[in-house]
Amino acid sequence: MARVFSGIQPTGELHIGNLLGAVQNWVRLQSEYDATFCIVDLHAITGAFYDAAQHRQRTLDMAIGILASGVDPERATLFVQSHVAAHSELMWLLNAVAPLGELERMTQFKDKSAALESIPAGLLNYPILMAADILLYRADKVPVGDDQVQHLELSRELARRWNAAYGGGATVLLEPEPLLTKARRIMGLDGESKMSKSKGNTINILDSPEVIWEKLRPAKTDPARKRRTDPGTPEICNIYDYHKHFSPPETVEMVAHNCRTAAWGCLDCKRVLADNMVAVLAPIRERAAELTGTPGRVEEILAAGAATARERAAETMTVIHERMGFLPAR
Question: Whole-structure pTM over 0.90, yes or no?
Answer without folding.
Answer: yes
